[in-house]
Amino acid sequence: MLDVDVIDDPAAATAALEPVRNRLLSELAAPASAATLATRLGIARQKINYHLRALEAHGLVRVAGTRKWGGLTERLLVASAASYVVSPRALGPVAADPQRTADRLSASYLIALGARVVREVSDLLRLSREADKHLATLSIDTEVRFRSPAERAAFTGELTRAVTSLVARYHDESAPGGRPHRLVIVAHPTPNETPRKEPSCQ
């Protein structure tokens, strides 16, 4: 099972977002049979099988094994990943694109950058898995609490100068065999977390 899988097929995204199938994906973090899921969720086994077949058709669940139960052979299914992200690629031409956002200080531009990261990194990860190679990435995630808007502005200026200096020191446009890397730095207010309501499975 993958830690995270990116869904870029519109039909697969639709299947994963349907409430019952979404719940089944979460329940299948560990292998389970249709009968077990039917009992656990209080849904008819035939209906569970219908949804499982749809998820399996899109590669979102797979067979993890079989077991004998009452003279029958049951399939044990498991989700393909522990969690999922829907790629902007699933939205086709209307997907967010930073090149279509003029204001680089806007929240819309930041969202478009995030969408591009998902699209590009998921494509690279897929290629690296096919080649059985490691994909080198760097992520820094931290939180800073500013005392005032003035200090936030000062931090922004200092960070910009530091990044500009580092890029100038290490960037070599003509390096033989060099490979460009995309560097994206974003900052936004930390949202207030609110409990999410579980979707109905009826």
TrEMBL record:
InterPro entries: WH-like_DNA-bd_sf, WH_DNA-bd_sf. This is ArsR family transcriptional regulator. It comes from the Bacteria. It comes from Sorangium cellulosum (Polyangium cellulosum). Pfam families: HTH_20 (PF12840). Gene3D superfamilies: Winged helix-like DNA-binding domain superfamily/Winged helix DNA-binding domain.
